[in-house]
Amino acid sequence: MSKIYNRSGGYRKLHSFNFATIIHLGTMSFCKRYLPWKDDPLGKMLGQMVGASRSGKRNIVEGSERAKTSSETEIKLTDVAKASLSELQGDLEDYLVQKGEIPWSVHNPEHKAIVAIMLDEFEYSDDLLHEYWKYLLAQKRKFDPWLEERDDVTAANALIILIQRATGLLARQLTRLERDFVAAGGIREKMTSARLTARSEPNAPSCPECGAQMRKRTSSRGQFWGCSNYPQCKGTREIGE
Length: 241
Fold this sequence. Notes:
By secondary structure, the protein is mainly alpha-helical. It contains eight helices and three strands; from the N terminus they run H-H-H-H-H-H-H-H-E-E-E. The protein is 59% helix and 6% strand.
């Protein structure tokens, strides 16, 4: 039987999701420490930054889960996740400029140190949630010397670098999703193919006109073989042929 549904879920193994989760936790901590009420009385900057970090994380989750029935939705939500994290990066850049700073150079030793840190792979178990959060917090601690233990300029720069890593991974995911969609199509194409396969005759001949598999059809004169590409192709054969 043809497989209709796409693969879905499994997002906890994606480094893009794990980086996005670290970014979300780091952003909440950053806003709590460095955006006091007196500097943001309406809560707009804080709300925008936390909301963008949450959107980056949650849209990866939803896109992964919706992939089962809609490749198009998975692609759109993955792109939304990337855009949300890019929005957050813009807010952090503005924060630095307002402080009289600019983002670190890629040649800065601190920048190089953060980029060099790799995430471990997460393995599923029968205690998924407990084991995942043990794993995730252990990964976040690798970046805490920059995110939690120093000043706001260091934390903002660290978040920008993590965002760049996450959006780079999401860009690669989008390229792969596009390639897979072009190669295999979406669920509509798979449903049509599965229905055609289910309706096909095991011993059906090939069409004499186009070579496609034929199907039994019925007319006022009885049954005959008709091309499966009808009405584009009108090739026929007699049943006994």
